[in-house]
Amino acid sequence: MGETFVELDCKSSSLQISVSDRRIEPRRIEDRRLIQRNLELEAARRMTEGLFQNLHTDEFVEKTLTTALEVVGAESGSILLASQDSEELVFRHSIGVSPVEAGTAIPWDMGIAGAVFHSGQPIVIPDAKRDQRHYEAIDVLTKHVTRDMIVLPLKRLEGKPLGVLEVLNKRESLLDENDVAILAIVSALAASSIEQSRLYREAKLAVIVRMLGDVSHDIKNMLMPVLSGAQLLENELDEQFPHWIQMKMKEAETSYANCQELTRMIVNNARRIQRRVREIADAVKGVTCPPHFAPCQISTVVKAVFATLKAYATEQAVLLETDGLDALPVIEADEHRLFTAFYNLISNAIPEVPGGGLITVSGEKDNRGEEILVTVADNGRGMCPEVRDRLFHAEAITTKQEGTGLGTKIVKDVVDAHGGHIHVESKLGVGTTFYLHLPVHPPPPRL
Q1: What is the reported pLDDT for 63?
Q2: How far is it, in rounded angstroms, from Cα 305 to Cα 209?
């Protein structure tokens, strides 16, 4: 009887443990679901909180990235936006361990990011090294090792791809499908914010386009009497002064030369005003006419800009100097567009330079003779990092009350049209330097 009792007791104990295990397991699953739900709610709460803080789009998107990393416990994350012109995914925001510099781009048909961008479906990668799609060039650039990652699409309201969200290296385990659910909330709100910003910008630009149409018409009407008067003055001078000069009136000869220079300046600047209005309108509308390339000397262009801005610079007590421009080779370029680019850079720099300050335009060529580098440097107030880093982005901002934010966009459009590239260095209280790299022989314009 004793043996039978013990055996039954053991079986009873075993049965109780088995039943208990089956009861505990559903509780664990429910606990995990509850934790997951709380994480999702926390992510949504933080994102919603950000929406009501009236943050700039870039600030809000950066906050969403920070939220994503904290909620899933990952090391780093990035948002890449698609550039239709270059067919690239461009790093717009990157935070965490070894962030990628803003503006870094990868072909949009390469890497796991490219796969997600085109498919519109999220991907979970437990081991990036084993995935043949992994784009290792970014790891090399940042000296960072990608272990596990999740990439989610950023979609416009109508479902078209906008870019991707990447989250890398979970700290305590591996990123999984549960993290995808949380990050889907983050990516949806980030994409919505970016898209709303785009729609707002387009609506605002549409208003500017309509206004520019009226302004362009008014300026054209106002310039007509200036051009007509300058032509009449030139005809009168041509008719009268040769007679006085024949009478050997030295003063008349000098006066005639000065008047000719004045009329040329009036006519040239009036025509430049007309071209500038058209260029601003084109920049706002996203329309770019093919450039007209011809032999061009940079020194000639910069001298013309200096002559136009001479009075303005003198009024502000700012010196304008050149260095090494005469030694630059003749390049194939659109002279009118280069004038616009240098005019923008220099005219924008003048009010930022204190009295007695200096703006220098310098030039040098590379050893192979394929490219020239032109720098526009000033010792003015400089720019804060927030303004500097967004200078050539679609959402360029200006700290000037009367500024439109279009100036640097126009400059970049000019440089892009020549197949070159531009970047800027600036420090508050020290000054700003723009670097324009221009090919001697630009590629044919894209049709």
Answers
A1: 79
A2: 27
Q: 55 vs 386, which has greater pLDDT?
A: 386
Cα separation, 273 vs 227, in Å, equals 12
Share of the chain above pLDDT 70, in %: 65
Element (H, E) at 140: helix 137-142
Q: What is the distance between the alpha carbons of residues 34 and 15, in angstroms, rounded to a whole number? A: 29
CB atoms near residue 413 (< 10 Å):
19
The reported pLDDT for the residue numbered 2 is 43
Q: Calculate the alpha carbon distances from 125 to 65, 96, 119 in Å.
A: 19, 19, 16
| Structure tokens belonging to residue 397 | 């901002």
Residue in 262, 227, 228, 255 with CA at minimum distance from that of residue 241: 255
Rg (CA), the chain: 32
Residue 60 CA: distances (Å) to CA of 152, 285, 337: 18, 27, 36
Kindly indicate the confidence band of residue 127, based on its pLDDT and cuts at 50, 70 and 90. very high
pLDDT digits (tens, 9 = 90+) for 11-25: 444 444 454 455 556
Q: Which of 366, 346, 365, 339 is closest to 432 using CA atoms?
A: 346
Please name each of the domains of the chain with its CATH number.
Answer: 73-180 (3.30.450.40), 295-447 (3.30.565.10)
Q: What confidence tier does 422 reach under pLDDT thresholds 50, 70, 90?
A: very high
Least Cα distance to 376 among 389, 358, 391, 392 occurs for: 358
Instruction: State percent of the chain over pLDDT 90.
Output: 28
Q: What is the C-alpha to C-alpha distance for residues 296 and 283, in angstroms, rounded to an integer?
A: 23
| Euclidean distance between CA atoms 66 and 62, whole angstroms | 6
- Which pair of structure tokens corresponds to residue 407? 């100036």
Let me know if 48 is exposed, middle or buried by CB neighbors in 10 A (0-12, 13-18, 19+).
Answer: exposed
CA distance 379 to 359: 7
Closest residue by Cα to residue 82 from 123, 118, 128, 112: 118
| Helix/strand/coil (H/E/C) assignment for every residue in 186-241 | HHHHHHHHHHHHHHHHHHHHHHHHHHHHHHHHHHHHHHHHHHHHHHHHHHHHHHHH
pTM of the predicted protein model: 0.49
